[in-house]
Amino acid sequence: MSAPILSSRARYVVLFTAIGALLFDGVELGLMPVASLSVSQSLLGAAFTPAAGGDWFARFTAALMLGAAVGGIFLGSLGDRIGRTRALGVSVLFYSVFAGLGALVQTQEQMLALRFLVGLGVGGVWPNAVALAAECWPDKSRPIVAGLMGAALNCGILMLSQIARTWHITPESWRWLFQLAAVPAVLGVVALTLIPESPLWQASQSKRRESAAGSPGDGSDSASPLRQLLRPPLLRLTLIGVLIGSIPMVGAWAASKWMIPWADKVGGATASGYKALTQGWWALGAVLGSFFGAQIAGWLGRRRAYAMISAATTVLTLLMFLGTAPLQASFLPIVFAQGFVATLFFGWLPLYLPELFPTHVRAAGSGIAYNVGRFATGLGVLAAGALFAALDGSYPKVGATCGLIYLLGTFVIWWAPDTTDRKLKE
């Protein structure tokens, strides 16, 4: 049984919906790095200190990452069960509604709980959006589609930084930002009700029903996607996916993101928009990097590209924290370069992970591979917060130390299968 083919118009509707979901996913990811210190100053009042601000930044980030890990695994699995579009809509509603409720909080603990709930939706969007777009477009188009998926997320971070440059986020004025973050709920409803489903997923479900009824089919295992992924023969692929998904995720949040509160601390006193400017330069590099990551993987091959990106990111992260500082002339150009190279991973991953897993477990497999790294990231960020305190609140020292995680990528990628010539199949 062959899968139905979507019309050109339907494919573009799917693509723009997936891009929109990831765009606002990026807004959620970029929200607390620019707002965290202002939120903490407002809610802690006289109890606020720079060390407490750094500690709460680590906690908010860890809560988001842990929520994203849980959401990516279980909402990714939901996409294999009820369909990519419905699971995508549920995920968008999760991050929009709970982000909007952040405008009402009165304590740090309330915000911490909401960041975890926002994370559920943030994690669920990625595997379902990537699987949906990859399955609705032909193989020859997938490097471009994967690049757009990666770039969309970082476009959201860039868009937020520009909003924050125009309307400054301060301890007296930050709640409006969380109200704005609730707007994508409209997109969640649209995805849930109006967007066409993946033909490959529909064909896979038909074959599984035939198999369950005793008719000729593909012989797919009737166990849940999660159970299949956690036992042979798919267990090896799952573990490999987790490793290669975890390294850039841990590096991004346990290392790279410290540059923003560092910029706020050093430059905020003389330029209230400097933290947003810093995030904007990083995000501009990230938009380009996350698009070209998939293209580089197509030119160089999947494994060679990943190894080279890992090595280059290590060098630039160390340079960003140890070779320059906020307000120096070289700081923003190096931030841009680090953003470009470090996010090549996030164009590479949307291309590679759907190739790694078969259709009937593709969303769950991609979700586990991408989001288990967020468990490690949550723990890594908490460890980085403790390291930050141990290093007397030195942003460059904690960023450079944690940035060494990228070196692992130059080794672990050679355990992964080379999927350069692999095509997606039903």
Characterise this structure.
With 426 residues, the chain is an all-alpha fold. The chain has a single domain (8-209, 221-415), classed as Growth Hormone, Chain: A (Up-down Bundle). Helices cover 75% and strands 0% of the residues. It contains 18 helices and no strands. α10 (235-255) packs antiparallel against α15 and α12 runs antiparallel to α13 (302-322). The longest helix has 37 residues, at 8-44. The model is unreliable at 216-220 (pLDDT under 50).
Taking pLDDT < 50 over at least 5 consecutive residues as the criterion, the unreliable ranges are 216-220
CATH-defined superfamily? MFS general substrate transporter like domains
Helix-strand pattern: HHHHHHHHHHHHHHHHHH
Query: How would you name the oligomeric state of the polypeptide chains in this document?
Result: single chain
Q: Outline the biggest β-sheet.
A: none
Average residue pLDDT: 88
The CATH class designation is Mainly Alpha
How does CATH name the architecture?
Up-down Bundle
Cα Rg: 21 Å
Approximate helicity band: over 70%
Shape: globular
Fraction in beta strands: under 5%
Secondary structural class: mainly alpha
Number of strands: 0
Instruction: Give the number of helices.
Output: 18
CATH topology: Growth Hormone, Chain: A
N-to-C CA distance: 9 Å
Tally of individual domains: 1
